[in-house]
Amino acid sequence: MIKSDRKLGATARPIIPKRGEKDFEPAPGGGSGLQLHILDRSRDAMFEALRAKRTISSKTISYGIWYPSIDRVHVTTARGIHFSAMGYSISRTAQDNCQSPPSKLPKRLELLPEEALYFIERGALFCYKSFSGGASLVDSSKHESQSQGAPMSVQQSFAEMIGREDLTLERYQVYAYLKRLGFILMRAEPPTPEYPVAPPVSLPPAKPQTGTRRLSELFSCLVPKVMSVARLFHRINWWRRLQLHQQKTTQDIFKALRFIPCGHTIPLYRPAIKSEPTSESSSPYKVLFHAYKPSTPFRKTAPPAPDFYVVVVDARTTPIPSLQELTALFGILPEMPLPPPRKRGVSAPAKPPGDSQPANVRPTTPKTAPHERSPPGLTTSRQPSSWSSSLWTFFQRLLSFLPSFHSVPSQRATSTFTPRKPNPFLALKTGKKTIVIAAVDAGSISFFRFGQGVFEEWPMI
Amino acid sequence: MASNRLIPLRVSNKKAYVWDIDGETKGPHIATHSRPSDIATLRSSHRLCGVLTGTLPHLSQQNVFLGVPLLLMPEEVVLLVEKGLAILVDDQNAHHDPSAAEMEKWDSERLRGVEEQLALAEEHDAREALHPDRGMSEKAILKRKEREERKARGKANAHDPDQGVSTPVITESVPDPVESSRITPSHSSGATPARNLATSYTVHVPGASSTFEWYAPSIHSFTTLAAARDAGMWDYPETPAQRARCAVFRDLWEQGYFMGGGFKFGGEYLVYPGDPLRYHSHFVASVIESPAAPLRPMEIIAHGRLGTGTKKAHLLCEWSEEKKTVTYYSIEWAGFG
Fold first, then answer.
1. End-to-end alpha carbon distance in chain A
2. Which residues contact A278 (CB under 8 A, 6 or more apart)?
3. What is the pLDDT averaged over residues A390-396?
4. Distance from C-alpha of B242 to C-alpha of B319, rounded to nearest angstrom
5. Which pLDDT belongs to residue A338?
6. Chain B CB contacts of A120 below 8 Å
7. Given pLDDT bands bounded at 50, 70 and 90, which one contains residue A377?
8. Residue B290 — pLDDT band, cuts 50, 70, 90?
9. Which residues of A touch B22 (CB under 8 A)?
């Protein structure tokens, strides 16, 4: 018997091997003696680290039972901090799985396959597979003396839990990768009605301006065809647009001169409308996980709005997302606040007063002061949904950006002595909506961030 | 070293894993230690690296170095099976339900392990009780004494005023757990730590299934790709593109190269002259599935750009199904001013 293996407290931590500098190539003939020696040592260190076992104290381990019929793990003993953000409680009746006594457990803690697999892999959960024969369930307190089912190894869990409940290996890898970094992950689509999800996003309604909308539709029809300038001239009275006495600022003039509609509210031209519903439903680009930063105050019964929306695709089989797929993805996302600008000492718009921004642009009470500057009707029509639904920081930042950048006629006087504009490139790069796409190629994960830039709101003048 | 043993690739959901690590077999069978693990064999003898994808036990909050399972690229699997170096195991079906006798045996062995641990722990505790200060830092000893003193004083004030004189002397001179339990036998401060410690033992969550008697890989194994395909557990390569990838991978492997995934470098593979642990890769390889496949100039530019930027040359590997040969072209920036 291996003594050190069973002895209490002999939970040898693996040591992550140091990489060291690589050589360019092995010396001719398979490498010099020194190279071979170093290679052997690196390999040994690597294999040694892999030999680490999942040992855990009996006081901290959790126990669970895997029910393949419902694709869930019932946690019979839940220990540890991780359960504050994983698993959900549900009441199961007898027919869901034949072993559970119907009246005894009104609500129980269950794990999705990826959650259970992650727990098992960490060595924090000992999972039994429920006997398919329907053997009687032992009282959960007696697991010390008798097993509640067939004990499952990590290998068996990989074989059985992946492929269940829409879980692919790629998805699990992304899940585990982010979990290891400390993120909190929830499924975007509840697999069961009891599964808690973030409140649905209240999307801004379609823009009410009928004139521009009609023009947009017209334009989206025109684009694929040969663009006929003459037809455009037919519809638009150019001279009305250049009645300069109405235009107060250069931005107003530019805005008036814009005859090609732009922005993400313009409906996409779809070459084949018939194939549209099928392509959308079968598209691999779907939000799978909601991710929360590790510092989020998280309550799993009422998850807040997520910080990231994660899509997982198999890089081997999935092509780059089409414009339609991206548009569909962005269509269900809320507008995100701008990231805080980098700390350079000067340009920090969302900061309390005291930095170098003038007081008239960055007021102490941002809720009232910008309203005095910009007509409230204009701002609300621009952002109909953000007032009600978004966070305070977003609110604050938006207000601080709006007066100096959007074409507000009354802003003309103040904008002249705004010393420093916020850098538009950060906003353009980040975009208002962001989605994270994880592409997994045979085990290696690459994360891509797609942002929906709003170029029409940040003119380069 | 290069044993003739076929490496079992555990296949589930059309993905092939390697789970076997040294010493993962049951405790008593120490003989298995002499053979290198499958992962080691794959890497050292067969020049195949795979990707480690599992959470490393005890270091489960990092992604720098991951643990088993080792996930193999489908091309690696095809190569291994075609060369007769590995067999495919249908892992979902290989896990049978244990019989009652097997369960009983497993449980009794587990309980025996627990008992052994508890016995060891008790022995350890007994030793510790004789020399309680051993292995403790000075600060900890001081703290402990202070705590004991406070407790003793509180107790003395509450119950037994005449004992209050003697306790400070005791706590300064004599090992306390033994002493305090002697002074106040009803109070369990001395006895509970030992018992608490004894009731906790180490649980071992098994990694590979090879320790289970009811795991039967041998009757669910396939030695050829065709057999595995007929069983519906493996279907790579299916398309001409996949066949081309396998052919290119095999050709490069036969020339002695190590291959890794090249997705992050805009190609199919990274080609290493030696083990990627120690050597940089020289090429990014992308596969062109047939001589008739189109290649846009933009791709050449992009590959050249990315390859040069990462100090690699880009390899265009063109597979010809008729001639069964791979033609290689490499792209590098010429570097004329």
1. 77
2. none
3. 51
4. 11
5. 73
6. 205
7. very low
8. very high
9. 47, 51
CATH for B238-329?
A: 3.40.1350.10
Q: Nearest to residue A450, comparing CAs of A330, A339, A360?
A: A330
Average pLDDT of chain B is 81
Interface membership of B231 toward A (CB under 8 Å): no
Q: Determine contact: B65 vs chain A, CB below 8 A.
A: yes
Alpha helices of A332-408 — where are they, by DSSP H? 369-373, 376-382, 386-389, 392-405
Taking only the tens place, the pLDDT of each residue in B206-239 is: 998 888 889 999 899 999 999 999 999 999 899 9
Q: Residue A274's CB: how many other CB atoms inside 10 A? A: 8
Closest CA to A21 of A38, A7, A37, A43: A38
Measured CA to CA, the distance from residue A98 to residue A145 in angstroms comes to 23
Contact B276/B258 with Cβ under 8 angstroms?
Answer: yes
Mean pLDDT within B136-157: 77
| 3 state DSSP class of A334 | coil
CA distance A189 to A187: 5
What is each CA distance from A318 to A363, A438, A439, in whole angstroms?
Answer: 49, 11, 9
pLDDT of residue A461: 64
Count of CB atoms situated within 10 Å of the CB of B237: 16
Amino acid letter at B70? L
Cβ of A145 and B68 within 8 Å? no
Q: Residue B309 — φ and ψ, nearest 5°?
A: -65, -25
Residues in chain A: 461
Beta-carbon contacts of residue A328 (< 8 Å; ≥ 6 apart): A280, A283, A285
> What DSSP string describes B166-183?
HHHHHHHHS-HHHHHHHH
Beta bridge partners of A63: A77, A126
Contact B194/A at CB under 8 A: no
Record the tokens describing residue A315, joined without a space: 């890089």
Residue boundaries of the structural domains of chain B = 1-96+215-236, 101-199, 238-329
Phi then psi for B70, rounded to 5 degrees?
A: -90, 120
Rounded to whole angstroms, how far apart are CA atoms A312 and A33? Answer: 45
Q: Is it the case that residue B21 has pLDDT exceeding 70? A: yes
**Contact at CB, A443 and B53, closer than 8 angstroms:** yes
**B232 torsion bin: left (phi>0), alpha (psi -120 to 50), beta (else):** left
Place of tokens 């910009």: A374
pLDDT band at A197 (very low <50, low <70, confident <90, very high): confident
A50/B113 CB distance under 8 A? no
Give pLDDT tens digits for A415-424. 455 556 677 8
Q: How many CB atoms lie within 10 A of CB B227?
A: 15
Q: Would you say the C-alpha torsion A384, A386, A388, A392 has a positive or negative sign? A: negative
A408: its two tokens: 């507000």
Residue A104 has a CB neighbour count (10 Å cut-off) of: 9
Domain ranges of chain A: 62-165, 210-257
Among candidate residues B206, B234, B208, the one with its CA nearest the CA of residue B220: B234
**pLDDT over 70 at A312, yes or no:** yes
pLDDT of residue B133: 60
Q: Which CATH superfamily is domain A62-165 in?
A: tRNA intron endonuclease, N-terminal domain (3.40.1170.20)
CB-CB neighbours of A430 under 10 Å: 18
Q: Do the Cβ atoms of B60 and A52 come within 8 Å?
A: no
pLDDT in tens, B42-57: 999 999 999 999 999 8
> What backbone phi and psi angles, to 5 degrees, belong to A440?
-110, 120
Average pLDDT over all residues of chain A: 72
Q: What integer pLDDT is reported at residue A270 of this predicted model? A: 66
Model-level pTM? 0.76
pLDDT at A101: 47
- C-alpha distances (whole Å) from A69 to each of A368, A379, B60, B209 are 58, 54, 30, 22
